[in-house]
Amino acid sequence: xxxxxxxxxxxxxxxxxxxxxxxxxxxxxxxxxxxxxxxxxxxxxxxxxxxxxxxxxxxxxxxxxxxxxxxxxxxxxxxxxxxxxxxxxxxxxxxxxxxxxxxxxxxxxxxxxxxxxxxxxxxxxxxxxxxxxxxxxxxxxxxxxxxxxxxxxxxxxxxxxxxxxxx
Length: 167
Fold this sequence. Notes:
alpha+beta; minor pseudopilin epsh fold; 1 helix
């Protein structure tokens, strides 16, 4: 009796291992994409909350008018970048810029928080900002898996909520 494996047995084992590896690898890739998208969402939510907190605390200004901060998501210049701005003067100034690692924004949006209340405003006519009376939704889309999306919903009072996009 000969000891060893036949060519057919080796081919079957290699095939089974390849199939299992492909299934596990695809699942791991999907899980990694989801985690990276979730990390980007958390960074954006954190920036929005920071801008609102800066406004409510009148960060950097002791005068009675205080400072006003907002966040800009400009897909025309860079679809994976967002900026916290100081809108206290007619010339807004950049406070902090961040880039997303795994996702992009689906549309451009600017939001501004009002002092004392934290109510959300958006650009109106003539460069002024107006109070919003409905939710603002910002969608992040995974670069690796374009069907994977998350919505960041900001209420008119500045409360931020994360939702899975229906796509």
